[in-house]
UniProtKB/TrEMBL annotation:
Keywords: Acyltransferase, Cell membrane, Membrane, Transferase, Transmembrane, Transmembrane helix
Pathway named in the protein's UniProt entry: Protein modification; lipoprotein biosynthesis (N-acyl transfer)
Name by which UniProt lists this protein: Apolipoprotein N-acyltransferase
InterPro entries, sorted: Apolipo_AcylTrfase, C-N_Hydrolase, C-N_Hydrolase_sf, LNT_N
Superkingdom: Bacteria
Pfam family, one: CN_hydrolase
Domain CN hydrolase: 221-456
Gene name in the database record: lnt
Major localization listed first in the record, in broad terms: membrane
Keyword Lipid metabolism: no
Membrane-crossing segments per the record: 6-27, 47-69, 81-105, 117-139, 159-180, 187-204
Originating organism: Aromatoleum bremense
Length: 512
């Protein structure tokens, strides 16, 4: 059993290379095919749980270890505690693939297609639960690894990231069960794989949304302000001057500065500072959107975007806050005795905020981590013609966080059929087309602006209409069929045998 657990961890580590910055998307299929193969070789839900947990722990340690940078380098948490915190967090995340694997081992019965559908459905429900429970952490959902040129990317406008992940899991497990393990007749399994491939090719030809209005010239500014210096009071004047200079030098129809680019409350800015930014934006014939903290009459503090310039001033307040970074979950106040995180007691914005009307377009703003939640972004549709994300990933240093976040933005563009604009502090500042391709990106950890014309779009993709409901319904049907089939059929993993020798031959992994 030890050997199998080690192999499961290696398979989980392989999955990291399916995501950005590597983007070897076929390794997502390879990783889940290996996991299916290992699960088919054991009996009992307990063994399945351990194998799934090992896969998940290795995948998350390799994929989100950049969280350590925020806790230790910028949060001031001691090395042993930061390492322990990351290990515990990854151990928690690994519970979701562990439970899916345990249930698969318990209920697997019948032909390869039935078993593959059961695996895919359980996997999808596990990822969806991880993306919802305790406000959710959907980072590294396996569907994100299938951005273009993966042929599964064309399913994103229909089924979203969870649906893409379900198809990946289905194909991977079918390959493992039909080609590798010869579980029942292989013709049906291969036919399903071919159908998925053909359907993906045909869906790739469909344009779900159409251009709307005249293109606007956008200037997405990357300020590249070191996180360790950003909050020092003696440097505040420098940062205010840097932001004003960059906005003035890169005039456009829409100029965007990143999340919390002004590291203080708006009501504490020097007198006339916002008026100066507004005059410069109007002089260039456009509008400026910038990240800043706002305070309401009750004292609530919001991580917000504020527009000034030719159009009336408008605001957006972040509604999906990050636990432990932007607010303290109940009973976790002690956490802030171990770290130093500025502005860590924030207030959620309203759930339904109208897009900003800027430059003849309707711009739906989301702040940093919010673009991980496709079901929340589609609330702004069909009104919005452009999607805009402002982020500050300087917290995570030079790590996988920047390219992984850009890959997530590419999935959001596919799901919504809208361009996704990204203005970040240290990277990756980019423009993503509605087909998920990147039309322009700035090198990370450089200061400058990405100035490009962008066309707005209108219309609704199927995902924008249904959200995650379609993928979750399919997953529930697949799991239900697998469970019902398991109850009706005699377990194939425990057939009646005439002798203990025959049973030993049937279960070569029994000694483990």
């Amino acid at each position: 059993m030890v050997r199998i657990v080690v192999l499961a961890a290696l398979a989980g580590g392989v999955s990291v290379f399916a995501f950005a910055p590597f983007e070897y998307f076929l390794l997502g299929q390879v990783s889940l095919a290996l996991l299916t193969r290992l699960l088919r070789g054991v009996r009992g839900a307990r063994a399945g749980f351990l194998i799934g947990w090992a896969w998940g722990f290795a995948s998350f340690v390799g994929g989100v270890s950049w969280l350590y940078v925020a806790l230790n380098r910028y949060g001031g948490m001691p090395v042993p505690l930061a390492g322990l915190a990351i290990a515990l967090f990854c151990a928690y995340l690994a519970l979701f693939p562990a439970v899916a694997a345990a249930l698969f081992v318990h209920f697997r019965r019948g032909a390869a297609l039935r078993q593959a559908a059961l695996f895919a459905g359980l996997w999808t429900l596990g990822e969806a639960l991880r993306g919802w429970l305790f406000t959710g952490f959907p980072w590294l959902a396996i569907g994100y690894s299938q951005t273009p040129p993966s042929p599964l990317a064309s399913f994103a406008p229909v089924l979203g990231v969870y649906g893409v992940g379900m198809l990946l899991a289905l194909v991977a497990s079918l390959v493992a069960l039909t080609a590798w393990m010869k579980v029942g007749p292989s013709a049906t399994g291969w036919a399903v794989i071919v159908v998925v491939g053909v359907a993906g090719h045909q869906l790739g030809k469909v344009s779900w949304t159409v251009p709307a209005g005249e293109p606007v010239v956008v200037a997405l500014i990357q300020t590249n302000i070191e996180q360790g210096l950003k909050w020092r009071p003696e440097r505040l004047a420098d940062w205010l001057q840097t932001n004003a200079r960059l906005a003035r030098e890169h005039a456009a129809d829409l100029v965007v500065l990143p999340e919390t680019t002004l590291p203080l409350l708006a009501d504490r800015l020097p007198a006339g500072y916002l008026d100066e930014l507004a005059r410069d934006a109007r002089a260039g014939g456009g509008d400026l959107v910038l990240g800043v903290f706002l305070r309401d009459a009750q004292g609530g503090i919001y991580n917000a975007a504020l527009s000034v310039g030719a159009s009336p001033s408008q605001t957006y307040a972040k509604r999906h806050l990050v636990p432990f970074g932007e607010y303290s979950p109940p009973l976790f106040g002690w956490f802030y005795d171990l770290v130093d995180i500025p502005m860590s007691d924030q207030t959620r914005g309203a759930p339904d905020q109208a897009p900003m009307k800027l430059g003849g377009q309707r711009v739906a703003v989301n702040v940093c981590y919010e673009d991980l939640f496709g079901r929340e972004l589609i609330r702004s549709l069909p009104e919005a013609s452009l999607m805009l994300n402002i982020s500050n990933l300087a917290w995570y240093g030079d790590s996988f966080a920047q390219p992984q976040h850009l890959q997530i933005a590419r999935m959001r563009a596919l799901e919504t059929g809208r361009p996704m604009l990204r203005s970040t502090n240290t990277g990756m500042t980019a423009v993503v087309r509605p087909d998920g391709s990147v039309s322009g990106v700035l090198p990370p950890f450089t200061q400058g602006a990405l100035r490009v014309p962008v066309q707005g779009y209108e219309g609704l993709t199927p995902y924008a209409r249904w959200g995650d409901r379609a993928a979750l319904l399919l997953a529930l049907v697949a799991v239900g069929a697998g469970v019902v089939g398991a109850r009706r059929r005699q377990p194939v993993d425990a057939p009646k045998m005439a002798s203990g020798q025959a049973a030993q031959q049937q279960f070569p992994c029994k000694r483990d």
